[in-house]
Amino acid sequence: MSNRNQSLTVVGAGLVGSLLSTVLAKLGFDVEIFERRVDMRKEAISAGRSINLAMSVRGLYSLQKLGIHEEVLKKAIAMPGRIIHPVSGSTSFQPYGKDESECIYSISRGDLNKTLMTIAESTKKVKIHFQEKLTSVDFKQRQLVFQNDKTKEETEVDYSQVFGTDGSSSLLRHALRDQFGHEESESLLSHGYKELHMPPGLNRQFQMEKHGLHIWPRGSYMLIALPNCDGSFTCTLFLFNEGPLSFESLTTPEKVEAFFKEQFPDIIPLIPDYIDQFFHNPTGQMVTVKTFPWNYRDDIVLLGDAAHAIVPFFGQGMNCGFEDVAVLWDMVERSNREDIPWKTIFDEFSVVRKPNGDAIADLAVDNFVEMRDRVADKKFLLAKEVEKLLEKRFPEEYVSRYRLVSFTRVPYRIALDAGKRQDKILSMLCEGISNAGDVDFEKAHELIKKEIAPLLKNMRTS
């Protein structure tokens, strides 16, 4: 293992980079972070991927281990379920977990990032260099070259180990691909997104129920809204980029007004300037990134979006990145006891995390279909009612896919497999019934013991 006095290099001071740096500092290392953006605590910047975050168990784990979770959750709002908005305007609530203790938390990406940067610097072992854009990597000389956005001056930085947390368009990942032939795929979703801001009402009151993730499912597209602590909601419209009904086709105020009046009439009085926001706010794109291996020797290891960018529909992008940090943390702690070299740690980390990164990427795309379409489908709702009954009747044996992903630390790859088996079981149990109470529990138990129990054996699900 490397000398504790050695300085480690982190590229990217986003959520994962800032958290990782705090962990490395706690483990005794000095850390230098190079961040291409300005210091968001001092200057207002565009949020970029500004979709609100949904923090859950995997993301909270490292924060709890560091003892900072209570500070972070002060700026979060609990969401125990989805609130569905049909065109008719009536709403329904779909709980996420077995009870309200199983909830996800809405939190501002920017606020969380600022908090994590401040915590990292408070260790006195982390220094953040802002406005430093990585331009090239020299693996032979073990050197990174950064260009200052303000002065345009270039700086050569020698490194011992580099932790790449530079996001979905990671230059470090591209360097590994170009110089060593590492596998890489970048799949752009056919949908884009546009953010709309719903202001608070009188006296900073929430204009809708604050404890819930609001969804307006419309088949091939949807609108969602997550609460903010100031009484506002961050709303996001997900729509095809191109086609008859798409961001490309909504070219005039009249077309946007007609679209909202037809599909989201209840949102119009809550966002009076929605048309202006629609044309002023940028249209974002969403990409799924898969790569392998995630490291090169003991030089570089990738974490977070740099290794596995995913679409946001399971709310697991940040949670998965924070889980990367937790797994690496455990490996480094073990290495201190057993004198394991960095290369072994990085190799193991890459092999262990890759299948889980791929699994949550697939789960996220599937959950997009569920959110925009299935949550309003009668067959889907019946299956969900049956699933709730199974969870109550067999709490130690049946844990839904959503709960496995959001409320446990069971590996994503296991959750993906369990979800496929659960879909098959629910389909069989719902055949020929129209009321969840008519389900054959004896048949259900046999199927659960055969399909689910062996998969979750020895897995901690509570």
Number of helices in the DSSP assignment: 14
How many DSSP E strands?
Answer: 19
Alpha-beta content class = alpha/beta
Per CATH, what is the topology of the largest domain?
FAD/NAD(P)-binding domain
- Give me the side-by-side strand order of the main sheet: 6-5-14-15-16-13-17
Assign a percent range to the helix content.
Answer: 25-40%
Distance, first to last CA: 35 Å
Q: Which CATH class of the largest domain applies here?
A: Alpha Beta
Main sheet properties: 7 strands, mixed
Radius of gyration: 23 Å
The unreliable regions are 1-5
Q: Helix and strand layout, with pairings?
A:
Elements: E1 7-11, H1 15-26, E2 30-34, E3 53-55, H2 57-66, H3 69-73, E4 76-79, E5 81-84, E6 92-95, E7 104-107, H4 109-122, E8 126-129, E9 132-138, E10 143-148, E11 154-158, E12 162-164, H5 171-180, E13 183-198, E14 213-217, E15 222-227, E16 233-240, H6 253-263, H7 274-280, E17 283-292, E18 295-296, E19 300-302, H8 305-308, H9 317-338, H10 342-372, H11 378-393, H12 401-407, H13 412-430, H14 441-456
Parallel strand pairs: 1-2, 1-12, 2-8, 5-14, 12-19
Antiparallel strand pairs: 3-7, 4-7, 5-6, 9-10, 10-11, 13-16, 13-17, 14-15, 15-16, 18-19
Helix pairs in contact: 1-4, 1-9, 2-9, 9-10, 10-13, 11-13, 12-13, 13-14
